[in-house]
Amino acid sequence: MTERRPATLGELRHSPWGDAKRRARSVKDELRENLLRRLEEGGPLFPGIVGYDDTVIPQIVNAVLSRHNFILLGLRGQAKTRIVRGLVDLLDEEMPILAGSEVNDDPFAPISKFGRQLVEERGDGAPIAWVPRSQRYIEKLATPDVTIADIIGDVDPIKAARGGHLLSDELTIHYGLLPRANRGVFAINELPDLAGKIQVGLFNIMQEGDVQIKGYPIRLQLDVALVFTANPEDYTARGKIISPLKDRIGSEIGTHYPRSIDLGMAITRQEAWVERAGRPLVLPDFVLEMVERIAFTAREDKRVDRRSGVSQRLPISVLENAVSNAERRAVRTGERSVVPRVSDLYAALPAITGKLELEYEGELVGAEAIARDLIRRAAGDTFEERAGGANVDDVVHWFDEGGALKVAVDERSDALLKGLSAVPGLVDLASALGLAQRRDPAVTVAACELILEGLAAARRISRVDEFSYARIRPERPGPPHPKTL
What is the pLDDT of residues 155-182, one digit of tens each? Predict the structure, then answer.
């Protein structure tokens, strides 16, 4: 049977929550103690975060153990917000407050006039409410239109009129997000986008632990853990962050994109929505690798703006679109399973073009042309990684002798496999490289498409147009120069 929670201040005094040590514990102490307990127990500290075990997470642990306010610096799509939200799991499951308090008043040390009056009037009979950890986290996206009133608070004439209070009465305060986060975690995403005067408004809470509400001669002694996120380009003296605020942030932690293809594949596979009701999904690992290499290639492409970065959402969206295209084909052709192919990645162009911020040179070429080039290069790198040194002479020779092949992207796998078998050695090469499965024509077709794309990327064969392959034709000599008479 679940133990009854205290419902009044008197009952709370005689419960474990009434212990003097626990009453004096700040929210940063609470985060620290729960983190130490989790470290002792073992297991993941931030479930679902992949690739940061040896880099970012140890720095976050140090910041929390140091009771620091901290900031995560990184480009878009580096799991900054997810990490910040994960701090909620380091809070206690629930927390007692004075019932009706807007600022999570500690029953033993209320900071608002409402809370103080409640304790004075009701004493040990003051009612207690319990707040779950999920409600102790407040997040705000910084935008230029955010005001001091939004973050800290301001006078509320309507509250004054309804309650019959003077405007100078503390009970007429409309509390902003920061006071409402008292005894919890307050997160601001894209901190440099806050107006300078708002950044100044954060000084007191970070250094002195209090805020002043506009127009009121009072100070609220807030207990809050502050965390921020920002883009490194903005978080500089030349950017939009003011130096005094930067100086008050205890730890500055840099995030990053996956350091390896395998880590990127693990993140994409975890986050992409591909397990759907209906036909079973068969996802060849080389297709997943190729999807991930699109992002890795884009991050190194000089035509793509590196300051904006290439979000991990790109390969996630590409994989989802590729699976959807394969699902559409399976439904139309009546195939039993959904197997994405290389051609399905070209159908996912809309998932790439919208996520690329281009430099001037890239703008001249166009996002779609760059996206196609990224897919082609990713196919070439994947094929080279899987088949480096393999003998492809039979396949290339067939094209050199005048052979040509048109891949019908919406054809059934078994019928398409018969057409691909016309290329000597192609299907056998796919099997020899461990890419194909003879019992699954769809996977074999996907493997053959990878080989063809890889050979085209290496300029061993020519990609004539949309999924048409032929021999590499030598450049034709130009017309003779007319003689000068």
Answer: 665 565 565 555 556 666 778 899 899 9
Q: Note whether 272 and 246 are same-domain residues.
A: no
Domain-ending residue, one of 254, 281, 307: 254
Query: What would the pLDDT profile of 184-238 be if each residue is shown by its tens digit?
Result: 999 999 998 888 888 887 877 777 767 767 666 677 788 999 999 998 887 765 5
Percent of the chain scoring above 70 in pLDDT: 90
Q: Cα separation of 126 and 119, whole Å? A: 6
Number of domains forming the structure of the chain:
2
